[in-house]
Amino acid sequence: MDLVPESDFTSTASNTTPTADGAEIAELRRVAVHLAETAAAHVRERRPQVFGPGARETDAVQSKSTPTDPVTIVDTETEQLVRKLVAELRPGDHVLGEEDGGTLAADPDAVHWVVDPIDGTVNFVYGIPAYSVSVAAVRGGRSVAGAVADVAHGVTYSAGLGQGAHRAAPGAAPIALRCNDVESAAMALVATGFAYGNARRTRQGELVAQVLPYVRDIRRIGSAALDLCMVAEGRVDAHYEHGLNLWDWAAGALIAAEAGARVRVPAPDSPGAAGELVVAAAPGIADELIGLFERLDVTTPIPQP
């Protein structure tokens, strides 16, 4: 698998024809930021009500794919909120969400809002401040705008295709994002993540043990969307993970690519169960890192049985 050229965010199914003009991309980015920040405010407000002292919510946490893969009442509420806002702001657009589903329509002009209402739900449940809301506008099989709201820290990362990536915090001017100028994989801080199914996570554990001696260190944050934004911001130098779904990477991968990362993602209709690899790396280490991944068999998909 080859990484795509620097700042050329694409997928294995994307074409090279323009999907929107600059003004439209800017508007979609504005909407993505509004959706992500409104949803993040809801998540921030609801957490102490659901998990704080004296909370009396019943059935607040349920299991999805495995007993250790949780979904909370706040996940479902937040996605419903985003769907309501999209219907009001962009009637006729489609929504594809982690909790309530949806599909990518065949119409290349259709805008799909791809939503992960809480990326990092385990962190959210435990109160670890590393969870996010991810919203991307996908058109013609590629992300054209996206926003990732870091809920606990009140920070929003956003990007538009060909328009750069920025970090915005309350009361501060937006900061343009750029990957680290790192030249050696041996000096790279690499983020990754693990699946909930035992078969895949066992293989992921074997692989990370093989990668570790060749890099500076490994970080496991627990939110792929935030990991990808951390590549963009230079808090880590690369991120790789098997088995992500479109909603996990649609916004974050665009943000990383617009910050200069070299990014490779699956086709947008590839399910997480297929176990394909997502990679985002600072440009100075991309060739070396993907070469290492190929030698260690990291680039091979890890399907979930």
Observed structural traits:
five-stranded mixed sheet; seven-stranded mixed sheet; 7 helices; disordered N terminus; 22% strand; 305 residues; alpha+beta
Give the secondary structure arrangement, pairings included.
Blueprint: H1 22-51, E1 61-63, E2 70-72, H2 73-89, E3 94-97, E4 111-119, H3 121-126, E5 132-139, E6 142-150, E7 155-160, E8 165-168, E9 175-176, E10 189-192, H4 198-211, E11 217-219, H5 224-233, E12 238-242, H6 246-258, E13 262-264, E14 277-281, H7 286-295
Parallel strand pairs: 3-4, 10-11, 10-12
Antiparallel strand pairs: 1-2, 4-5, 5-6, 6-7, 7-8, 8-9, 12-14, 13-14
Helix pairs in contact: 1-2, 5-6
Textual characterization of the structure:
The protein has a seven-stranded mixed sheet with strand order 3-4-5-6-7-8-9. It is globular and about 50 Å long. The protein is built from seven helices and 14 strands. The chain is α+β, with helices and mostly antiparallel strands. The two termini are 23 Å apart.
User: Which descriptor suits the 3D outline?
Assistant: globular
Percent in strands: 15-25%
- What's the average pLDDT? 91
Would you tell me the structural class of the helices and strands? Answer: alpha+beta
Question: What about the largest sheet?
Answer: 7 strands, mixed
Strand arrangement, major sheet? 3-4-5-6-7-8-9
Query: Could you tell me the number of beta strands?
Result: 14
Roughly what percent helix?
Answer: 25-40%
Given the structure, what is the number of helices?
7
Q: Give start-end ranges of low-pLDDT stretches.
A: 1-18
Order of helices and strands: HEEHEEHEEEEEEHEHEHEEH
State the separation between the terminal residues, measured CA to CA. 23 Å
Indicate the radius of gyration in whole angstroms: 18 Å
